Amino acid sequence: MEWWNGSSPLAALPQRILYLREATYDDPLPWQLQRNFTAYLRNMSWVLNATINQGMLEEFARNRVVEDPAFSTLIFVYSVLIIVGAAGNSLVVCAVARKPAMRTARNMFIVNLAVSDLLLCLITMPLTLVEILTKYWPLGRYPFLCKMLGTLQATSIFVSTISITAIALDRYQVIVYPTRESLQKVGAVIILSCIWVSAIILASPMFFWRTLKHHDIHLPSLGLEYVAYCLEEWPVEHGRAYYSLFSLVVQYVLPIITVSVAYSRICRKLRYRYVHSSALGSSSKNKGCTASTNKRKPKDDRRMKRTNSLLVSISLIFCISWLPLNIFNLVVDYWNPFGEDRQCMMIWYAVCHMMGMSSACSNPLLYGWLNDNFRKEFKEILASLCPCVPVEAVRERVGSLRSSVSKRRRKMKGSGNAAGSLSTGNGSKGIGDRESLRKGECQGARDQEETVIDAGAVSNYRRGPETMTTENGLQGDTEMTILTRV
User: Fold this and answer.
1) How does the record say this protein sits in the membrane (predicted)?
2) Where are the beta strands (DSSP E) in 160-245?
3) CA-CA distance, 81 to 78, in Å (whole number)?
4) Res 437 pLDDT > 80
5) Which helix (H) or strand (E) covers residue 133, if one does?
6) E strands, 128-223, where?
């Protein structure tokens, strides 16, 4: 950005020092100044005091743009975001790495999002904070470091937003078109590779047009031998503004439209399935189930509302998090309403940047903790790390979960056996078999409704025209990657 070069008097101080060091006063004075030499000396004294004032030099050596209390506040808030985001995303990566059953094709998208968010927390946030708080580049004379850090920052942001879009599209395909072939690991690896390559290409202008400029000033008394600035020098006028507009479209507008449309279609599809399954449960063929179904309907309604609220929340959080930063970059690149007040500009930039970086803290919650399988793994990891978490309680909860899934399977199998018994049995068993079939259909209708509302680990289902079975057994029955039990 053009405003990174710093056009304030302090930013121009190195050039002033060099000018005064190189100036010579052996030449004869102009005749106008000879007439009033006292005034000339008084004027030179003012120039020297204004240009190389000791206090000004010391302030420059402190290398601060933002002063207290904003300085301390920014460091504290950024530290909280870095710690919370790094911890949450590390848990997501560890949860998948430690259990082979968690290494599914669709969990790879969540891991990829966690890795990109780790880059945001461990690289982008600390280095951006350094740029916000300092007047000049404090990381040495190496131009490659300036280029690479800017590229890594942009790449991690693009990977994060594209990964969120890919997760939304994958969920859309699974729920809206359930009979299509399920995504395999090879396909997921190819998609993730394309995401990273695309992000690097989109961020490449930061590598080509960022450069490091330094000035030797030799002030050992202040510990300053040189000052350096990591700047962006674009080959065309307003190049930075054009790139900001392009980034706004690619990194924000297109993803938010895609995510919103995908999740709205998912909500409509699930609502249709829920209404359809409720109609099946109350049909004449299943009249015996009506009382039981009516008792469960309020609970199912609440779960459906929570599901819709979750999907809407994902879209809104993405929208709210990244909008301020994109608008700020666009406004500053085109108009720069802050003028020479760099401290005010940096504080506003920090606020907008922190809102964008907060997505790295919310993503582990939205895509990890609200997933039953991830939450179970999180609890086990925390139990192994923290003695205050009772390990036995976690194991008991996992055993209870497995028991409930096994019971559901036996009931569904029993309903299938009842149907087969009626179709193959003789007439003498008609009344008993019909009663068994009625009970089986009742349980089957309830299981179908629950599957529709929970989306029964839709991220890992292999779909068929009539039934749903899972790729990973127990995991498929309990996973809430797409629509969770909240």
Assistant:
1) Multi-pass membrane protein
2) 210-219, 224-232
3) 5
4) no
5) helix 125-133
6) 210-219
Q: How far apart are CA 107 and CA 376, in angstroms?
A: 15
Same domain, 248 and 110: yes
> Tens digits of per-residue pLDDT, 90-107?
999 999 998 888 888 889
User: Mind listing the pLDDT tens digit for each residue in 318-372?
Assistant: 999 999 999 999 999 888 888 888 889 999 999 999 999 999 999 999 988 888 8
pLDDT grade for 471, boundaries at 50, 70 and 90: very low
In a domain, 54, yes or no: yes
> With 80 as the cut, is the pLDDT of residue 51 above it?
no
* Residue 476, token pair as written in the block: 């498929």
Token pair for 412 = 């569904």
b/e for 68-91, b at 16 or more Cβ within 10 A? eebbeebeebbeebbebbbebbbb
Of 352, 414, 368, give the one whose Cα is nearest residue 96.
368
- Residue 470 forms beta bridges with which residues? 461
SS3 472: coil
- Tokens 């848990």, located at residue: 91
Domains contained in the chain, number: 2
Identify the residue with better confidence: 373 or 20: 373
| Contact partners, residue 44, CB within 8 Å, separation at least 6 | none
Q: How many CA atoms lie within 13 A of 265 on its CB side?
A: 16
Strand bridging mode 224-232 / 461-463: unpaired
Which helix H or strand E contains 468, and what residues bound it? Answer: strand 468-470
Cβ atoms of 476 and 461 closer than 8 Å? yes
Regarding beta strands 461-463 and 468-470, do their DSSP bridges make them parallel or antiparallel, or are they unpaired? antiparallel
**CATH assignment at residue 123:** 1.20.1070.10
Range of the domain at 191: 63-262+339-385
In the DSSP assignment, the letter for residue 130 is H
pTM attached to this predicted model: 0.71
Q: What mean pLDDT comes out for the span 282-289?
A: 52
Q: Where are the beta strands (DSSP E) in 291-331?
A: none
Is pLDDT above 70 for 295?
no
Q: Which amino acid belongs to residue 174?
A: V
The residue behind tokens 């978490």 is 389
CA distances from 451 to 4, 80, 102, 241, 301 (A): 54, 39, 21, 49, 14
Say if residue 106 is in the same domain as residue 184: yes
- On whether both 71 and 53 belong to a single domain, the answer is no
- Reduced to 3 states (helix: H, G, I; strand: E, B; else coil), residue 228 is strand
Q: In whole angstroms, what is the distance from residue 187 CA to residue 144 CA?
A: 35
